[in-house]
Structures are given as C-alpha cells and as structure tokens.
Amino acid sequence: MDRVWRIVGIVSPNPLEILVKFKQWFACLVVLSGAVLPAWATESASHPDPAMELDRMDQRTPVPLSPHMALHQKQNMRDHLEAIQAIIAGLAKQDFPAIEAAAARMGFSKEMEGMCQRMGAGAPGFSDRAIKFHKTADEIAVYARKKDEKGVLDSLNRTLAQCVSCHATYRQQIVAAGTSSTLIERLKSSE
Ligand code: HEC
Fold first, then answer.
1. Quick one: which of 26, 50, 87, 167 is 20 to 30 A from 142 by CA?
2. Is 141's pLDDT higher than 60?
3. What is the Å distance from ligand 1's center to 39 Cα?
4. Which tops the pLDDT comparison, 152 or 10?
C-alpha cells in the first residue's frame, strides 16, 4: 500500500494530505484534458471516417441496403453491363439472335419485379425506375426479333439513358441487416 501512496506523491497518508494530493491530481487532469481533448477533436474532425466522409459528400439519394442486398445489386449491375457489351457485339456482327438473348438478361419478369421492389423498399421512386428500365430493355429484344437494326439502336439508347439517369440520382447506402428499411424489404418479400 505504501508503494501506491508514493506513486501518487503522498509521504505520510493522512486524510488532509490525501485530499490535497487528490485536488492537485484533479487539477492536472483538467488542464491536460483541456489541452489534449480539443486537439484530438480537431484532429479527428479533419480526418473523419473516410466512408462517412464519402457518404456526406455524395449528394445522390441513398438506397438503403443490407450488405447482402448491396452485393447482390452490384452483381446484377455488372451483369447489365455485360449484356450491353453483348448487344453491341451482336450489332457489330449483325447477330440478331445474340442481341435478343443479351437483351433478355435485362428483361422484365415477375421475379425481377419482386427483387426491384425489395431493393428499392427504402428509396422512394427507385423500384418504379428499375421496373421501367427492365421493360425498356425488353424493347431491344422485340426489335432484334424483327432484325430491325435502327429499332435496336434506338431502344438501346433509351435503355442506356435510364442507366445514366438512375446512377445520377441514386447511390447505395449500406445499413445493418434488420434496420427499418431492411425490415420493410423482408415484409415486402414475404407478402
Ligand atoms: C433503377 C436504378 C438503376 C438502373 C436503371 C441501373 N443501375 Fe447500375 N447501379 C445502380 C445503383 C444504385 C448502383 C450503386 C451505385 C453507387 O452506390 O454508387 C449501381 C451500380 C452500377 C455499377 C457498379 C457495379 C459495381 O460492381 O460496383 C455498374 C457497372 C452499373 N450499375 C451498370 C449499370 C448498367 C450498364 C445499367 C443499364 C443497362 C444500369 N446499371 C442500370 C442503380 C441502377
């Protein structure tokens, strides 16, 4: 016990000396926190969490998604990009069946509709845009079946315009699975 008293600077432990030392240590602590805390706060304010900083800078409407849903959405997106490339390749070779097959990868279906509704449950307007996009992609397949090159190009352009405008409007926001919007997702999926 004597060692403890010595460490805190007390020679003969009596209540008065303990009180005086306690006050000295407390004053020290106040001065230190006054000097260190503001410096630490400024430091962390100038270096905020990079993910939070991006979140604050990106002004697009957030689409709240659980990590699982966000990954799934990005996989779909990369598949859309591949489908677009396959359509262009088909156009270059005048291979209309290939164009039709590629467009079908982005086409509308009841399953696709359900998925878009779950993805967009927390972002007003997102699902409607997504569904409209899939229906526009279906038009590419219709023109490909007719071997109508101009029609394919026109509908491809209208489809791409929807990729562009959705990306300009929305961004992913990763939220913990089970938060309000992911609960809405689950409620909707169980309907
Ligand atoms: C209804 C909205 C919507 C439409 C339509 C849409 N996207 Fe996306 N896409 C998104 C969102 C949201 C993201 C996530 C972007 C972010 O968080 O910055 C995304 C991300 C992407 C990514 C990045 C994937 C990754 O791995 O990071 C690609 C590529 C992409 N989209 C391609 C396309 C293409 C090609 C089309 C059209 C053929 C398309 N998207 C149509 C909403 C959409």
1. 167
2. yes
3. 41
4. 152
Pocket test for ligand 1, best of 79, 163, 164, 169 (most atoms within 8 A of CB): 163
Amino acid letter, residue 181? S
**Comparison of pLDDT for 42 and 109, the residue scoring more:** 109
Task: Provide residues with CB under 6 Å of ligand 1.
Answer: 63, 74, 77-78, 80-81, 84, 126, 129-130, 133, 159, 162-163, 166-167, 170-172
What letters, b where the CB count within 10 A reaches 16 and e where it falls short, cover 146-166? eeeeebbeebbeebeebbeeb
**Cβ contact 86:95 at 8 Å:** no
Confidence check: pLDDT of 182 > 60: no
CA distance 154 to 161: 11
